[in-house]
Specification:
Oligomer: single chain
Radius of gyration: 15 Å
Number of strands: 0
Number of helices: 2
Shape: elongated
Largest sheet: none
Helix content: 55-70%
Length: about 60
Amino acid sequence: MTRTKQALIWAAGIIAFAVFGAFGLVPQDVARYGVIALPALAAVSIFTQRPCPPCGKIRA
């Protein structure tokens, strides 16, 4: 999976989480810190992947 696809999936999850928090489906404290923590987790998971040397593709 490319970094772009991963970023779009993370973005959709973050937006959905924020919307759930806005409508009260997620407790307010969880929504407040989740919207801060999820982008950090996304950045770590997307940017810590290294391509394999022989082919240059990113391993899952």
